[in-house]
Amino acid sequence: MAIPPPAPDSTCLVTGASSGIGAEIARELARRGRGVTLVARREDRLRQLADELTRAHGVRAEVVGASVADHDGRAELVSEIESRGLTVETLVNNAGYGSGGRFQDLDADNEEAMVRLNCEALVGLCGVYAPKMVNRARGAILNVGSTAGFQPLPRQATYAATKAFVNSFTEALHTDLAGTGVTATVLCPGPTRSEFAEAGGLGTFDQLPSFLVDSAENVARAAVEGLESGKRSVIPGAGNVLSAFGGRFAPRSVLLPALGRFYPVK
Ligand SMILES: NC(=O)c1ccc[n+]([C@@H]2O[C@H](COP(=O)([O-])OP(=O)(O)OC[C@H]3O[C@@H](n4cnc5c(N)ncnc54)[C@H](OP(=O)(O)O)[C@@H]3O)[C@@H](O)[C@H]2O)c1
């Protein structure tokens, strides 16, 4: 089993655990008896979830209110975890956001900050914890990419590029870690019900056929099952497997104009 077994001082660090997929991944891990360290900016939400997980599963659930988007915030998070005497044996880099619109119309600072959160924070935390896991010869890393990363997406240009980075980085990391006892898995969800669409100014996914939109619970279950078996990548749902295939292999000259029309954002 790729997820190290429960131990009193062992924890699963989950970023972006205050809503959506991150909260559900924390629930899946707690259901399997693992202690969790929940990280996001909305500390009140994290506390509610921590109480729920301790009550329901008897696990230790820690809360650290922090932004992982900047180097100092991550350094504080890492030292806070150390000072609590915890060893991160499972790392879930889930915090992320998107945006919608033609790149030239979007807030440039917000696009830049998205790269820092979606890419830099994830590499930063892998950089802190992967070597420690390798020294212990055990550990599991789950990075949340997206099917958006399998092709360029007009009107989500930065977001799709950040997720292409996450998908590529994690697949390579999986191979770099081969034989060390540590695994890296990339989760590539398609459209999923959470706060993501609203937070990114994408409205809702209501315009999509309902069979194309998954629940955060289903996505999290697939993710943690993939993590347990040390998979390189997890693409939940047959529709998303197909769209990932199409995104990778369809000629860009056909795909890009079609996607530009498909995404009904400003
Ligand atoms: N929903 C989808 O359709 C979909 C599809 C593919 C991939 N994904 C990916 O799945 C991941 C989770 O998204 P979601 O759908 O669950 O969206 P969500 O409900 O909006 O959750 C995003 C989480 O990230 C946290 N976050 C945002 N900025 C942060 C920061 N600077 N520091 C720490 N935490 C931060 C948020 O918490 P606070 O605001 O409290 O900090 C929240 O817990 C993201 O990486 C997203 O790109 C989503």
Automatic annotation (TrEMBL):
Coiled-coil blocks: none
Domain of life assignment: Bacteria
InterPro entries according to UniProt: KR_dom, NAD(P)-bd_dom_sf, Sc_DH/Rdtase_CS, SDR_fam
Cellular component, GO annotation: membrane
Gene Ontology molecular function: any one: oxidoreductase activity
Domain (Ketoreductase): residue spans on this chain: 10-192
Keywords associated with the record: Oxidoreductase
SMART domains xref list: PKS_KR (SM00822)
SUPFAM superfamilies noted in UniProt: NAD(P)-binding Rossmann-fold domains
Tagged with keyword Oxidoreductase: yes
The keyword Aminoacyl-tRNA synthetase is assigned to this record: no
Family listed: Belongs to the short-chain dehydrogenases/reductases (SDR) family.
Protein name as annotated: Ketoreductase domain-containing protein
Organism, scientific name: uncultured Solirubrobacterales bacterium
Species lineage: Bacteria, Bacillati, Actinomycetota, Thermoleophilia, Solirubrobacterales
